[in-house]
Amino acid sequence: MNDDAAEIAAAAARWVVEEGMEYGQAKKRAARDLGLGSRCRMPDNLQVEDSVREYLELFAADTQPSELRSLRELAVQWMRQLHPHRPHLTGAVWRGTATRLNDIHLQLFCDDPKSAEIDLINQGIDYQVGGTQGFRGQSVDVLSLSVLCPALSEHIGLHLTVLDHDDLRGALLPDARGLTTRGDLKSLLRLLENAE
Fold it and tell me: Do residues 28 and 109 share a domain?
């Protein structure tokens, strides 16, 4: 990593941990704060994740593990509730870098893209519909809601990205380091058990 990228990754890590920013936004903010132009080489997300882990070890080692566990336990609850839609946890809660400021991101691999929305309506759950880009570049719905996390005594954002069942085939491939970017309920329960 060149010096600018390393400096941006370190500064971005602070924004990710202290403000709950997503990596892209944190990198832009860090570059701007450091006075680096838009032509500087940005770190990739794995470099930022490494810096986030270092930051957590230095400044949040006493609180982050229990906050992460609370978020993962809340994710388990919602994954059980949404089981028919093949939920997979992704993002900071899955990767182990989340704090109480992070939202929970579940990807639902549905046979019918409207089934998850109908399920939430039938359960009387309020949500907002947004969008993002799917695996194949198509627009997909993101259903966002605010849910109480009793262990943290506060509301947490829960985002449900509605994907096609066929997208699941390639979704479990590991990244460049051999780590998965998402996991099903069984995998999450294993993480919780191994953390005890």
Answer: no
Q: If we measure between CA atoms, which residue out of 143, 135, 148 comes closest to residue 118?
A: 143
Strands (E), 27-138: 87-90, 104-110, 128-133
Same domain, 182 and 96: yes
Q: In what order do the strands lie in the sheet with 139-149?
A: 128-133, 139-149, 154-164, 104-110, 87-90, 182-183
Q: Give the mean model confidence (pLDDT) for residues 171-194.
A: 84
pTM of this prediction exceeds 0.85 = yes
Please say whether the dihedral angle defined by the alpha carbons of residues 175, 105, 91 and 37, taken in this order, is positive or negative: positive
- Contact criterion met (CB below 8 Å) for 141 and 129: yes
**CA 11/CA 34 separation, integer angstroms:** 8
| DSSP symbols for 144-162 | EEEEEETTTTEEEEEEEEE
Name residue 76's amino acid: V
d(CA 181, CA 166): 17
Percentage of the chain lying above the pLDDT 90 cut: 73
- The residue segments making up the domain with residue 7 are 3-59
In the listed set 11, 28, 59, which residue is the last one of a domain according to the structure? 59
In angstroms, rounded to a whole number, what is the distance separating the alpha carbons of residues 50 and 58?
13
163 neighbors 107 (Cβ within 8 angstroms): yes
